[in-house]
Write a structure and sequence with these properties.
358 residues, single chain, 3-stranded mixed β-sheet, binds adenosine-5'-triphosphate, binds magnesium ion, GMP Synthetase, Chain A, domain 3, 9-stranded mixed β-sheet, alpha/beta, Rossmann fold, 12 helices
Length: 358
C-alpha cells in the first residue's frame, strides 16, 4: 500500500481540531502554530502559547501529538514550545486607555474597500446592543468619519484633554473635527504618529466597552503607531471579493500578526448586489473570496456585506444605514457582523489575559 505524501495542509488541518484548553477555538485560528515544516515524514512546528504555565503547555503539546498521531504518514514530530511573549510588550510600551475595555482596529491593505463604512456601522451596531462605544477616526490624511456621522462640530477641551463629540450615542474623535475642512492635509510620518497618539491618549474617552478605530488603508505609519501605542484587543480586516483586494487583505493580516495583535476576522464588503426591483442577488465581484481567505489563514469569517446604494447614501448623508434604516436587511447584516466581532473579541481576551483589562 502506498502512503499518501505528507503535506503541511494535512498537518494544519489536523491541528485545527485541537482546541486551546478551556476554549472553543483551535490552536490554528488563534495563530499559536508557527513555522510548520514537513520534510519527508518528519514534521517540525513551533507552538506559541500565551501562557507561562508549564502544565498548560504540556497539555497542548500532548493534544498536538495525539492529533498528529492520527495523520497517516507522520514519522518523527519535533515540537518547539515557547511561551508567547506577552503581546506588544515592546520597548515602545503600549499603554491602555483608562476606562476603555476593548480596542478594535478596522483595517485593510487596500483603499476604498469600505473600512470607514464598516467601522461606523460596526460601532453603531455595538452601541445598539447596549454597549458604550467610541469611534476614533485614525485616518489623519483623509478623515471620513465626520461626513459619515453628519454635522460637523468642534470638540472642546476639558482639563487639558479633548472631549469627544457625541454622534448617535457614540463618543467620536476625528482630526476632521479638529481641523475642519482644511484638506488635503499634508503631514510627515512623525507628525501623523504624534497626532494619532494625541487622539488616543489625550482624549476623555470615558467608560467604554469598545473603542473602534477606523484606520487609513495599508500598513504604514498609522498602523504601526497604533499597535505600538495601545494594547489592541484585535483587528478586523475589511476586503472586497476581488482577487487583488484579497491579496492586500492578507498583507494587512500579516501586519497584525507580526505585531502580535489577534485577528478578530475578515469582513467581505461589497460582496453581492441585491436588486432593489426583484430582490435577486448578483455576485458582481465573485463572492466568497473573503471566506476562503479566512479559512486558509485560519481566522474567523465575520460576514458578507452587500453592495447597496442605501449603504453608500447612509455614509454620504451622515445617517449610516444601521441607524437610518435599522429594520433593513443591510442593518441586520451589520448587527450580525458586530455580534461576531464581539464574540471574537471575547475569545481574544480569553486567549491573552495578560494584556487586556477585563
Ligand atoms: N457595501 C457597500 N455598498 C455600497 N456602497 C458602499 C459599501 N461600502 C462602502 N461603500 C461606499 O464606497 C465608498 C468607499 O467606502 P469607505 O470610505 O468606507 O472605504 P474606505 O476603505 O474607508 O476608504 P479609504 O481607504 O479611502 O479610507 C464610499 O462612498 C462608501 O459609501
Ligand atoms: Mg476610510
Amino acid at each position: 500500500m502506498v502512503t499518501p505524501q505528507l503535506t503541511e495542509d494535512a498537518v494544519i488541518s489536523a491541528l485545527r481540531e485541537v482546541k486551546y484548553p478551556g476554549m472553543s477555538r483551535d490552536l490554528v485560528s488563534f495563530g499559536m502554530i508557527k513555522n510548520t515544516r514537513v520534510e519527508g515524514t518528519t514534521v517540525y512546528l513551533e507552538l506559541q502559547i500565551p501562557t507561562e504555565d508549564a502544565a498548560v503547555i504540556a497539555k497542548v503539546q500532548a493534544s498536538v501529538r495525539e492529533a498528529l498521531g492520527r495523520v497517516p504518514g507522520i514519522g518523527e514530530l519535533h515540537i518547539q514550545a515557547a511561551p508567547r511573549q506577552a503581546p506588544q510588550e515592546a520597548a515602545s510600551g503600549p499603554a491602555p486607555l483608562p476606562g476603555v475595555r476593548r480596542i478594535i482596529a478596522v483595517a485593510s491593505g487596500k483603499g476604498g474597500v469600505g473600512k470607514s463604512t464598516v467601522a461606523v456601522n460596526l460601532a453603531l451596531a455595538l452601541a445598539q446592543s447596549g454597549a458604550a462605544v467610541g469611534l476614533l477616526d485614525a485616518d489623519i490624511y483623509g478623515p471620513n468619519v465626520p461626513r459619515m456621522l453628519g454635522e460637523p462640530g468642534r470638540p472642546k477641551a476639558h482639563e487639558g484633554k479633548i472631549v469627544p463629540l457625541v454622534r448617535y450615542g457614540l463618543n467620536v474623535i476625528s482630526v476632521g473635527y479638529l481641523l475642519g475642512d482644511q484638506s488635503p492635509i499634508i503631514w510627515r510620518g512623525p507628525l501623523v504618529a504624534q497626532a494619532l497618539k494625541q487622539l488616543l491618549h489625550e482624549v476623555h474617552w470615558g467608560q467604554l466597552d469598545y473603542l473602534v478605530v477606523d484606520l487609513p488603508p495599508g500598513t504604514g505609519d498609522t498602523q504601526l503607531t497604533l499597535v505600538q501605542s495601545v494594547p489592541l484587543t484585535g483587528g478586523v480586516i475589511v476586503t472586497t471579493p476581488s482577487a487583488v483586494a484579497l491579496m492586500d487583505a492578507e498583507r494587512g493580516l500579516k501586519m497584525f500578526r507580526e505585531a502580535r495583535v489577534p485577528i478578530l476576522g475578515i469582513v467581505e464588503n461589497m460582496s453581492y448586489f441585491i436588486c432593489p426591483h426583484c430582490q435577486g442577488e448578483t455576485d458582481i465581484f465573485s463572492r466568497g473570496g473573503g471566506r476562503q481567505v479566512s479559512e486558509s489563514l485560519g481566522v474567523p469569517f465575520l460576514g458578507e456585506i452587500p453592495l447597496n446604494p442605501a449603504i453608500r447614501e447612509g455614509g454620504d448623508t451622515g445617517a449610516p444605514v444601521v441607524v437610518a434604516k435599522p429594520e433593513s436587511a443591510e442593518a441586520l447584516v451589520f448587527r450580525n457582523v458586530a455580534e461576531r466581532v464581539r464574540l471574537a473579541a471575547e475569545a481574544a481576551v480569553e486567549a491573552m489575559p495578560q494584556m487586556i483589562i477585563r
